[in-house]
Amino acid sequence: DTQQRRLGLRRLRLVQAPVAGESGRSFVFEVNGVEVFCGGANWIPDDNLLNRITPARYRERVQQAVDANLVMLRVWGGGIYEDDAFYDACDALGVLVWQDFVFACGLYPVHPAFVASVEAEARAAITRLRHRASLALWCGNNEDYMLAEAVGAYGPGGDLSRFEARAIYEQVLPTLCHALDPGRPYWPGSPYTASTGAEATVAGSGVRPSQDPTVGDRHSWEVWHQLMLPYQRYAEVGARFVSEFGMQSHPSLAVLEQAIPADERFPGSRTLQWHNKAFSPVGADGHRRLAVYRADTLRSPDTLAAEVYATQFVQAEALRHAYEAFRRRWQTAGARGCGGALVWQLNDCWPVTSWAIVDSGGTPKPAWHAIRRAMAPLACAVRRGASVVAAWAMHAGVQPLAVQARWRLHTVDGEAVDDVSTDAMLVANATTELVPPSSWTAAPDQPLIASLVLTDPASGSIARAHAWPEPYRWHRFPDPGLQIATEADGTVTVQAARPAKGVWLEVPVVSGAPGVQFDDNFLDLVPGEVRRLQVTGVTGKPGEIIATCLNTLQDPLG
């Protein structure tokens, strides 16, 4: 018997250390001696029929995560131990894998026959995957501690004797991992907040609420689920490591048109509703939650195409806010307030309205582009309102970086109000708070659009951020006067005479042909900017390009 394996070598450590000026402990992954902010995503089976997932499709999905600047995928405990092709792709492309054991959202038994089955399954999984360079963490379960707490079987004051499965997560699985894969971090569950598994083995000792934001990982569902907070408040629900959070949207119009009969292709149709299986304790109400977030943000669309754009717009804005807020907490070593954020979810298994950022047809949604920019090695964010003025830069390099910052204000009609340039020195592998110009601190007496552009003169790298007046539904944004041109080499240039929000470019899908993709999309533009985009999936010029933006949705008469 022989085996041939391709191996990668690296050092990996899970750092749980004090956080300067705060209670609790960090939750940070260190790779080859460098602490890494783990922006990433949750992974579910990529198809309901597993045999249809080819190695090429696995590679494509993992590559899409990499292209979005994501560095970690969490294999969710409600799914499967994935095919070797998935781990091959993660090994080759440098993606860290958070691997749940496949326990999810349940109270499991511990009678001898079941525990023997668990041991056999875990032993098989560990020995199959332990050589993987991508494998960063074994995790005991998904949301079982949280569920036990919900029924009074865990947490402060809980009847711990009712939560029998703790023996699996705190004894059986860590014992096997230590014996078969020593040195790999093990974590009892997600979410879980004791700083070590041993703390929770003594009743009444070290047992914290499962969602304690100061220790361990957390599922931050106050936005979308639970309180249905506005997505602008993501900064309030951060944690040491946010292993789940998300916002729904429809898939692409092309996917819906393949799945929904022609006479049901309108907003709110019965078939559209039943392609949303999100549920809460009050029932399958995903379509209602989706409608609330869309209505809180935008005016009501009147066609299915506009409805698709509107929900994808909201998802992109929500996840931009989330990643910017969570990554902002990645301060210097010893002050890592947040060590990572894994959006729920990367991919989809059927043509559904869901939290995925890549739909079941393989098409990246606008949120994919918003995340890609927020997780870029050089990124920035800006907030400007009646009472909030803030800006920060996120730099992943291991050396300090000198950048030039351009700060501009425009009216919604495109009139320039302010244009100031400054210099800034960014801290290595951390977030740096930036000081906006004094002109930005005055309370606006009219709706203004703030834009910040950071340029690294040495490399030419550019990061952009914009703050528009919100909620968007309150404002009329005039026709931006978009100009889209296709160059001889197939690149596309885009510019606008007036500010344009959320410009989404697409080429009509031709049956049997691969989808045309732009390397940047869902653009915010202010006058004077020219964006040059690379196009894939087409030979020569891309032909007809359809452009949709918030301006046309908000001001159909403009």
What features would you describe in this structure?
With 558 residues, the chain is α/β, with parallel strands linked by helices. 23% of the residues lie in helices and 23% in strands. The protein has eleven helices and 26 strands. It has helices at 55-67, 84-93, 112-129, 144-150, 166-180, 253-259, 270-274, 286-297, 304-328, 366-374, 550-554, and strands at residues 12-15, 28-31, 34-36, 38-43, 72-75, 96-100, 135-139, 186-187, 218-219, 242-244, 340-343, 378-384, 389-395, 401-411, 416-426, 430-434, 448-455, 462-467, 482-486, 492-496, 500-506, 517-518, 523-525, 531-533, 535-536, 546-548. The chain has a six-stranded parallel β-sheet with strand order 8-7-6-5-4-11. Helix 3 runs parallel beside helix 5. The protein is globular. The model is unreliable at 195-205 (pLDDT under 50).
The largest sheet has its strands arranged as 8-7-6-5-4-11
DSSP E strands, number: 26
Beta-strand proportion: 15-25%
- Low-confidence segments, given as residue ranges, are 195-205
List the total number of helices.
11
Calculate Rg over CA atoms.
24 Å
Quaternary organisation: single chain
Mean pLDDT: 92
Q: State the major sheet.
A: 6 strands, parallel
Structural class: alpha/beta
Cα(first) to Cα(last) distance is: 72 Å
Shape label: globular
As a percent range, the share of helical residues equals 10-25%
List the helices and strands and how they pair.
Layout: E1 12-15, E2 28-31, E3 34-36, E4 38-43, H1 55-67, E5 72-75, H2 84-93, E6 96-100, H3 112-129, E7 135-139, H4 144-150, H5 166-180, E8 186-187, E9 218-219, E10 242-244, H6 253-259, H7 270-274, H8 286-297, H9 304-328, E11 340-343, H10 366-374, E12 378-384, E13 389-395, E14 401-411, E15 416-426, E16 430-434, E17 448-455, E18 462-467, E19 482-486, E20 492-496, E21 500-506, E22 517-518, E23 523-525, E24 531-533, E25 535-536, E26 546-548, H11 550-554
Parallel strand pairs: 4-5, 4-11, 5-6, 6-7, 7-8, 9-10
Antiparallel strand pairs: 1-2, 2-3, 12-13, 13-16, 14-15, 14-17, 17-18, 19-20, 20-24, 21-23, 21-26, 22-25
Helix pairs in contact: 1-2, 3-5, 9-10
